């Protein structure tokens, strides 16, 4: 049996170690390929706001958005809207599934991100940096524009057959689906 020179042994060991680590990482990641676009945040003078975006998973495995951080607020919650006895309520969730080969839209009246305890008011035209954490794809940083929902491109994705209503006795506006909340008067 022939023994390789030390230099070749080190190169062989390094290559083998690289191959093992790369294979393990690829097995954990799978074929998750996440594209995030159309990221925006609702302007707010109060302590909370909401962020929306389109997340496309072009990979062959399910991924999940598991957390979000930003310097604009103290914490971010992942939310979904559910209807309970004809009342729409926001509910925090642990994660948002991003199925393979699918586009998931976080939008008003649907899944969205709640920015809790804003550090400063958010004004139209400002930018907010969001750090998204996916279970398989890992960390991703995106820039969100602060804008109103009057953007026509996003308006077409909203449910059309909803009527405005006032909150009931033991209900807050946060309990109501955002598209059903009465308009907020300025001034």
UniProtKB/TrEMBL annotation:
PANTHER family in the cross-refs: BLR7088 PROTEIN (PTHR36302), COPPER CHAPERONE PCU(A)C (PTHR36302:SF1)
InterPro entries named in the record: LpqE-like (IPR007410), Lxx211020-like (IPR058248), PCuAC_sf (IPR036182)
Domain of life the protein comes from: Bacteria
Descriptive protein name: Copper chaperone PCu(A)C
Region feature (Disordered): 149-187
The organism of origin for this protein: Caedimonas varicaedens
Listed Basic and acidic residues bias regions: 149-172
